[in-house]
C-alpha cells in the first residue's frame, strides 16, 4: 500500500475552502454520428507549489482525511453551475441537450441524506431530468446487495441519469447490467485496448453490448485512442465513447466551444485508412 502524503491534507482543506480546485471536461461522442453528446467532469487541483495535480495524486489523501464526500459535493455543485452555463448553447444534432457526467465515490453515495441533498441541488439549478449523470463503481456501490438497487432507484427518482463506471474491473458480471436501474455502462479501457486485434476482447465487448441493449442500457467505451479501436467499437454497436481519439480533458471555456460546434469524430461508421492521424484533438 502506498504511503499517503499527509502534508497535502491541510493544503487540500485550504483549497476546498478557497475554491482552488478546478474542473476539466472530456467530451463523450456518439459513435454513430460523431457528435459530442456530453461531457465527463474531471477534478484537478492547482497546487501552489506542485502545479496541476490529477486525482491520483490526492484522492487517496482526501479519502484518508475524510474529505472525499465534501470534495464530491464541491464537484457536483460546480457541475450544476456549469450546466447552467450550457443553456444558451445549441442542442445536439438530434435536438437533445448534452449530459454532464460526474464521478461519485462510494463514501459520498452512501452518506445519509445524499438523495435529499442531490434533489435540492437539482431543484435549485432547475436541471432537467437526465441532464446530470452520476457515475458509480461496483466497488463503491456494493453492487451485489439489494440496497444498491434501491439506492439507485431512489436517485433516478431525483431526476439524474446513472452509469456503472469502470465495468469489468471489480466484481463485474453480465448479470449486474440487468439487476441495477442504470442508464449506461462504461466499459473500462482495459477491454477497449484489445478491440479489433484481440478476439477474446472483441467477444467480451460484444457480449456486454448485446446484453446491455437487451435491457435498454447504453454502452460507453472509455479510453479510446486509435481509429482502429473507434471503428471496431462502432461495428460492434457500441453507442458512445471517450478518449484521446476525440479529445483530452478541456478547461470549461474550451469544452463549451466544442459543445457549441458539436464536432467530434469524423470517422463514424467507417473503417479508417492507416494514413489517417491517430488523434483528432490533443489535450489543452
Provide a concise account of the structure shown:
The chain is α/β, with parallel strands linked by helices and 284 residues long.
How would you describe this protein?
With 284 residues, this protein is α/β, with parallel strands linked by helices. The protein has a single domain (8-261), classed as EAL domain (TIM Barrel, Alpha-Beta Barrel), CATH 3.20.20. It is 41% helix and 19% strand. It contains twelve helices and ten strands. Helix 5 (114-124) runs parallel beside helix 7 (146-158).
Descriptive terms for the model:
single chain, 284 residues, alpha/beta, TIM Barrel, 8-stranded mixed barrel, disordered C terminus
> Which homologous superfamily in CATH is the superfamily?
EAL domain
State the share of residues found in helices, binned by percent. Answer: 40-55%
**Coarse morphology:** globular
Radius of gyration: 19 Å
**Count of structural domains:** 1
Output the strand order for the largest sheet. Answer: 1-2-4-5-6-7-8-9
What's the CATH topology label? TIM Barrel
Q: Which stretches are low in confidence, meaning pLDDT under 50 for 5 or more residues running?
A: 267-284
Mean pLDDT: 85
In CATH, the architecture is: Alpha-Beta Barrel
Q: Element order, helices and strands?
A: HEEEHHEHHEHHEHEHHEHEEH
- Tally of alpha and pi helices: 12
Query: What's the total count of β strands?
Result: 10
Percentage of β-strand residues: 15-25%
What would you call the structural class?
Answer: alpha/beta
CATH class: Alpha Beta
Amino acid at each position: 500500500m502506498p504511503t499517503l502524503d499527509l502534508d497535502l491534507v491541510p493544503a487540500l482543506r485550504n483549497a476546498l475552502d478557497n475554491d482552488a480546485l478546478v474542473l476539466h471536461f472530456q467530451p463523450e461522442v456518439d459513435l454513430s454520428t460523431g457528435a459530442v453528446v456530453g461531457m465527463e467532469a474531471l477534478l484537478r487541483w492547482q497546487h501552489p507549489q506542485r502545479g496541476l495535480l490529477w486525482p491520483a495524486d490526492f484522492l487517496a489523501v482526501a479519502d484518508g482525511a475524510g474529505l472525499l464526500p465534501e470534495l464530491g459535493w464541491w464537484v457536483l455543485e460546480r457541475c450544476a453551475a456549469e450546466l447552467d452555463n450550457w443553456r444558451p448553447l445549441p442542442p445536439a444534432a438530434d435536438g437533445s441537450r448534452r449530459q454532464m457526467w460526474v464521478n461519485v465515490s462510494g463514501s459520498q453515495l452512501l452518506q445519509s441524506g445524499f438523495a435529499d441533498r442531490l434533489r435540492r441541488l437539482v431543484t435549485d439549478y432547475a436541471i432537467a431530468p437526465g441532464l446530470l449523470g452520476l457515475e458509480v463503481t461496483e466497488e463503491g456501490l456494493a453492487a451485489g446487495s439489494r440496497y444498491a438497487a434501491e439506492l439507485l432507484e431512489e436517485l433516478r427518482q431525483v431526476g439524474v441519469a446513472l452509469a456503472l463506471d469502470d465495468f469489468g474491473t471489480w466484481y463485474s458480471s453480465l448479470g449486474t447490467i440487468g439487476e441495477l436501474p442504470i442508464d449506461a455502462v462504461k466499459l473500462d479501457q482495459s477491454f477497449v485496448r484489445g478491440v479489433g486485434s484481440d478476439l477474446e476482447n472483441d467477444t467480451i465487448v460484444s457480449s456486454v453490448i448485446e446484453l446491455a441493449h437487451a435491457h435498454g442500457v447504453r454502452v460507453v467505451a472509455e479510453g479510446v485512442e486509435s481509429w482502429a479501436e473507434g471503428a471496431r467499437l462502432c461495428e460492434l454497436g457500441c453507442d458512445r465513447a471517450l478518449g484521446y481519439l476525440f479529445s483530452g480533458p478541456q478547461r470549461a471555456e474550451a469544452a463549451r466551444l466544442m459543445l457549441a460546434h458539436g464536432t467530434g469524430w469524423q470517422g463514424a461508421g467507417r473503417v479508417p485508412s492507416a494514413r489517417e492521424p491517430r488523434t483528432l484533438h490533443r489535450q489543452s
